[in-house]
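[recover] target loaded
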């Protein structure tokens, strides 16, 4: 199934000319193409096509990349997903720059007047250029002595990504288990979990003493391996497979989790993440995860 998604606002990026070109790409590769189905008017549609039995992954990557080339600079995400088993029973989402629009550690750094020192380290860590745990501890160490009251301030001021509430609410309405699994901090993941209705959250813990951050984070640090462990543990607890899960994230520490799930989605991801993830969303908001699973706009819950 080829799924095309665009922004929720603004003019529709889809045209008859583009759709004809996309259909031509599929047919040129020898695929029988079915009728397109609108998932959300002017925002998302899907085009079924027959995949040859035993077709190699390299072949569908070639088709996807040809479609993406045809799309060009238009604000359209092009992804291919299997038609069978599309609707997942587990959602595991990263928090920073995914479910929320910012990096929470950078936000804390701004309160401390250390944004110029800490933000570049965050960027390198998210691109996979630094060891995640070492970079996390280095940045947290710079925050020693910061008034812990800023943690509450961050909760009040943080912005939730468009479509996050709908994503969680829709999957819960369809009996999926939802978890927020983050390399960020429990002081924020817990309020965000409650705000959006996730079943659980897993993250790191900042150590506070006498009303101040100590510059330490409790062990063990939740890193890329812990995200995969969370996926496997949650699937096992529910007596499901990791194939029954959709995962979403943007940073290098999300790559193993995205690759392990039945549907892994890089959401406005760093280049290395987009290059490795099965699916990538740049233009749609988090409702794009629902369109990839075949939900129509009429089926999307409005959230909490």
């Amino acid at each position: 199934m080829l799924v095309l998604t665009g922004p929720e606002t603004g003019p529709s990026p889809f045209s008859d000319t583009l759709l004809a070109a996309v259909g031509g790409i599929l047919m040129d590769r020898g695929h029988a193409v079915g009728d397109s189905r609108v998932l959300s008017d002017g925002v998302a549609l899907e085009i079924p096509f027959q995949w040859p039995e035993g077709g190699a992954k390299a072949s569908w990557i070639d088709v996807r990349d040809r479609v993406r080339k045809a799309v060009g600079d238009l604000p359209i995400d092009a992804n291919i997903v299997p038609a069978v088993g599309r609707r997942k029973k587990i959602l595991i989402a990263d928090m920073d720059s995914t479910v929320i629009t910012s990096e929470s550690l950078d936000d804390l750094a701004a309160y401390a007047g250390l944004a110029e020192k800490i933000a570049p380290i965050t960027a390198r860590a998210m691109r996979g250029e630094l060891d995640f745990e070492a970079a996390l501890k280095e940045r947290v160490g710079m925050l020693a002595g910061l008034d812990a009251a800023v943690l509450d301030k961050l909760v009040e001021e943080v912005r939730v990504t468009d479509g996050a509430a709908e994503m969680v609410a829709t999957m819960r309405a369809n009996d999926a288990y939802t978890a927020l699994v983050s390399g960020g901090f429990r002081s924020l993941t817990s309020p965000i979990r409650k705000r959006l209705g996730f079943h659980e959250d897993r993250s790191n813990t900042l150590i506070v003493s006498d009303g101040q951050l100590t510059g330490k984070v409790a062990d063990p640090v939740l890193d890329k391996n812990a995200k995969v462990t969370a996926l496997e543990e949650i699937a096992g607890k529910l007596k499901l497979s990791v194939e029954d899960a959709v995962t979403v994230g943007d940073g290098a520490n999300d790559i193993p989790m995205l690759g392990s799930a039945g549907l892994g989605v890089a959401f406005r991801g760093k280049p290395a993440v987009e290059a490795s993830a099965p699916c990538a969303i740049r233009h749609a908001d988090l409702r794009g995860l629902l369109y990839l699973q075949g939900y129509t706009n009429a089926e999307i819950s409005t959230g909490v």
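[recover] notes: The CA atoms of residues 12 and 42 lie 5 Å apart.
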